[in-house]
Amino acid sequence: MPDSQEFLAAAKDIVDRVVTTHTDAVLAAAGLIATALKGDGVVQAFGTGHSESLATEVAGRAGGLVPTNKIAIRDLVLYGGAPADTLNDPLLERDPAIAHRLYELAAPHPEDVFVIASNSGINGCIVEMAQLVKEHGHALIAVTSLEHTSRATPRHPSGKRLSDFADVVLDNGAPFGDALLPLPSGGSVCAVSTITAAYLAQMVNAEAVRLLIEAGVTPPVYLSANVPGGDEHNKVLEDRYAGRIRRGA
């Protein structure tokens, strides 16, 4: 029977493997981000379903970079004028057409870099967004499970996966289906992709900040809004990117 200690042991094995095998990929991803920021670009982060948590890890949090923007399917309603019931469709992430509207609403600049997360890497919206990103000349960092995506059939008309378009692939190490602990009756419990993706995001964050400092650039980093002076510090930095980064719901 699954229990917490079994999960901790299984998750630790995967975390250890991910963080020790990604030195080169993390450095490459950090280099793309540092180059974008030095060129007045911002980081555009996108994920659907539970992979939206990776975009939240990248954009708009304490200790993270200020020039970051989270793209989410709810943007269709919040910024695009779509009716609220649009979001009632649980299969929306499979629709490639959605990516075009989301890209349009984000209005990225040519120098922006994209981070796209999808554990499976096969859904239409994710793959279409990756294709759009490369068609427009942006650098692309993908966070995905290479085990899962290699065993799953792409849902995009091209037959391609997120990883096929990426300049850098960060493998979150999750098994096929994401969950770690098998059940006696079939299936598994306790997903791991969110945990490892957060590790990868913060490893890239640390290296990107290091590269900026080495280049003589003061990193534009958020303070917590819940410490004295945090709001004031953050507003000064956010004003530099007015109209390019969204900090709504």
Proportion of residues in helical segments: 40-55%
**Largest β-sheet summary:** 5 strands, parallel
How many β-strands, per DSSP? 7
Q: Spans of 5+ residues with little confidence (pLDDT < 50)? A: none
Beta-strand content bin: 5-15%
Q: What is the residue-mean pLDDT, rounded to a whole number?
A: 95
Q: What is the oligomeric state here?
A: single chain
Principal-axes shape call: globular
Q: Give the CA-CA distance, first to last residue.
A: 39 Å
Count of discrete alpha- or pi-helical segments spanning 4 or more residues: 9
Give a short overview.
This protein is of the alpha/beta class and 249 residues long.
Explain what the structure shows.
This protein has 249 residues and is α/β, with parallel strands linked by helices. The protein has helices at 4-21, 23-38, 52-58, 75-78, 96-106, 124-135, 146-151, 193-214, 230-239, and strands at 43-47, 68-71, 113-117, 139-144, 168-171, 179-182, 188-191. The strands form 2 sheets. A 5-stranded parallel sheet has the order 2-1-3-4-5, with helices on both faces. Strands 6-7 form a two-stranded antiparallel ribbon. The longest helix is centred in the C-terminal third of the chain and has 22 residues, at 193-214. The chain is globular and about 55 Å long.
